[in-house]
Batch of 3 targets.
Target 1
Amino acid sequence: MAVIETFGLSRNFGKTIAVEDVTLAVEAGEVLGFLGPNGAGKTTTIRMLAGMIAPTEGYAIVAGHRTDRDMEQLHEMVGMLTQTPGLYDRLSARRNLQYFASFYPSVESQSQVEKYLKLMGLWERRDSKAGTFSKGMKQRLALARALVHEPKVLFLDEPTAGLDPEAAGEVRQLIRTLREEGRTVFLSTHNLNEAEMLCSRIAVIHTRLLALDTPEQLRRRFFRRQIIVQLEASDAKVMEVVKSLPFVQEARGEGSQLILELTDLERNRPELVKAIVEAGGRVIGVSEKQYPLEDVYLKLIREESGNES
Ligand SMILES: Nc1ncnc2c1ncn2[C@@H]1O[C@H](COP(=O)(O)OP(=O)(O)OP(=O)(O)O)[C@@H](O)[C@H]1O
Ligand SMILES: [Mg+2]
């Protein structure tokens, strides 16, 4: 079941087209990675999905509500982390959360505030003013704010940007927990490794939606599957034998590695290894070549700018 659906979603700011004709669906319980260069329209899309700004064309339905019409109901269902935390510097961490929790009449604010201050590791600092917090602490407080009413859908706009590796890791762990709890997460990030670690599917936007698929399928779109056979040492005889196999379509050597394209990567693998061993090759390992998601992303973006000119 789709929890987020957009239909030709578009937004202009004067003459600037920020988002154009984006149609997509995010399933319940999915963590969707939302990628794109600076100025690609990620934040604008998120703001439309969370009901903060209206689209100029098209519309979106989130948790069953039109984001440009049913704002009240929508706010109960969604939580949002923006790129600027939007906290009250002069209020303590606890007062900040109490304030935001008070927007939701159905929320047991006392216990929820306590729960999230503890979960975010801010309990010890609950009475310190938010203005005295480091960037990472502010980010954790902002996350607590996004979660305090237990929303089903979360919009996280670059939640790990500017955090140290440990703090970023903690935020990622939290996102995994949200996923396990069955919440739907719309995650914008510039960190492709992070996207791959956390997301079932990845959307790439550059004003228009360029792609939306699993990382695996995105790779296949640009790269043919290749197998890497790691040998003990490079071996000309083995190479010759490998090249003569009927199911080997491409073969090249890189040091002690053979990089091969096979007719059927899974089914041909045992026969391949057998032939190498029979030819006297000593096989240390066999694996599929993994192209970094970054290579896929850059190809997508370059393909797009190529189309424009
Ligand atoms: N309030 C606004 N007024 C005018 N233009 C805006 C406004 N908000 C966004 N834009 C423009 O819309 C485009 C998309 O901006 P947006 O903030 O959505 O990009 P983004 O993908 O989030 O970028 P980043 O990775 O830098 O956060 C940009 O050209 C930006 O200048
Ligand atoms: Mg942004």
Target 2
Amino acid sequence: MALTIDAEHPDGSRCARGNCLRILDELDRVGVRATFFLQGRWVTSHPQLACEVAKRGHLIGNHSHYHARMPLFTASGQISDVTEAEEAIRSVVGVDPRPWFRSPFGAGLDDEELTRNLGRLGYRNVPWHVDGQDWEANRSARQVEESVVRGILSANGAQIVLLHSWPDQAAEALPRILARLADEGVEFITVDQVLNGN
Ligand SMILES: [Zn+2]
């Protein structure tokens, strides 16, 4: 499975600070390399944390600048949003996020115009197969854990899993998700290993 973490401004105010660092520490502890999609505005407001993600060796992608639903932009709006995020990631983190892009909310994954505009900028839009739904305020860490573990174990072939950098449930569920899947013999890879060759 390829674990992807969308690192962005939180959707809710109830999450504890430091969850992103907790996630990074857990990934380090068990030696798992993940893929982090960084929101441009999050990078500029959390430069040290954004740099830490790269320093620890994770694969970096672009998660837009304003975290809007991409199909709501005009073509030039899409291009300037994606470019702005790329510039923030390159200047703050020192990494080129291309070709990996993730649409906020998964909006426009099948949108031909968005796909074309992303392609012009050198990006591929990365979907997910298993959603931990960790962004839902009412879901417990245990529910997030079960969604991911069952989603992976019931599927065939490489699966991309979505979690976020900020929810308490993500930070809390991650150690058990990784331990249970490792026990089942699941191999942890990054999105380039899932999507290259497709
Ligand atoms: Zn997002």
Target 3
Amino acid sequence: MAPEVSENVDIAIVGGGLVGSSLACALERSGLSVALIEAAETPEAPSGFDQRKLALAQRSIDALGRLGVLPLLQAPPTPIRRIHVSRAGDFGRALLDAAEFGHPAFGAVVLAQDLGLALAKRVQSLKRTRRFCPARVTACRFDTDGAHLSLDLPDGARILSARLVVAADGTDSFIRHAAGIATRSHDYGQTLFVCSLRAEKANDGTAYERFSGQGPVALLPMAEGAYGAICGVASADAPGIAALEDADYAAYFQNRFGWRVGKIQATGKRTFYPLKQVLAERLHAPHAVLMGNAAQTIHPIGAQGFNLGFRDALSLAGLVLNDGLNPGTAEAYAASRQEDRARTLAFSDGLARLTANPGLPMHLLRSLALGALGAAPDMAAGLVSGAMGYRGATRFEEAL
Ligand SMILES: Cc1cc2nc3c(=O)[nH]c(=O)nc-3n(C[C@H](O)[C@H](O)[C@H](O)COP(=O)(O)OP(=O)(O)OC[C@H]3O[C@@H](n4cnc5c(N)ncnc54)[C@H](O)[C@@H]3O)c2cc1C
């Protein structure tokens, strides 16, 4: 058997999904040597580079522009100019217009696959990042010098040693487990169906969120007047919904969403995702940090998952750019993420549970809350700044 090859880097990022790839781009100016390790067959094929439509906060869009990723997208992001929130059976509804808050848009929508391919292209041009793909981390050992990773590559095994390992390896993170960090999980009992859709009324930059006891339904504006459609169903009903013909699914969606965009004319290929929340109890261990889905996998209802994971990546890059990589980096990173993480988790989980509870007092509360949102500019402005991602800049953005 061929002997194992050994290499050293400053930072090893395990997981080349949307968050790990973003981190590699953000670390480019740090002068550190970086390894990006991804198990998928090619750098363009991680499972997260799929047909889901991502609503990105304006702050994420701005930062992706500064990282040189936006110009590499095939389709320009579609701006979200208005947000319409309603609930089946409730009186309240809220229409938030970015122009009334002095902004051209709240954010924009991109296809996850398009963003993934743009990131993969950008990573390829990085001078200080070595990409290992396909490569799976099969063991991780920590000592006082750092982390020692065993990589399984097509041409044999390799040991990679790093001063810091970043777990960007998703919900079932191998590195999180190796670092001895426990998780808390909650199964929402919901499955989310995602597809493209055309309706009688072409999109005009409005994102619709409609809540019901069965789960959330949303339409996001996409290129050329199309919509990205999202529909939550009880997991027990998911196999039946997955088996529907396209025309029957269009009728089902119409029934759940209503007629705000006229008749649903056609739906594209459907993909679906069972929804579970998985939260790491800590974000660091000696020589290791967690970010993105490895740190927190959250309900997509508030469109916060990538936005939050991207801010994780920008925060770590900001620390390293300002203070260098040192023995205190992992702890400083965890401390820097505490407030944003806690507030975003509370927002997303609260929204998921509040909007799924069919009890009467909750029903009234929701009507009042939606009505108040439409009527009280201060309350709406708070929500808007959270949704746009402006909750205190990371040190990376300050350094740009
Ligand atoms: C339906 C849906 C809609 C969503 N909508 C939004 C939205 O509108 N806005 C938003 O901000 N977020 C949204 N999200 C959330 C967003 O998609 C995720 O937060 C984001 O994709 C997480 O990326 P990640 O890189 O952290 O994890 P992942 O995409 O899971 O990437 C982890 C990577 O690690 C690799 N890996 C795993 N183990 C190993 C190993 N041992 N060795 C090497 N590589 C390994 C995997 O192959 C994978 O590519 C949505 C999610 C869903 C499901």
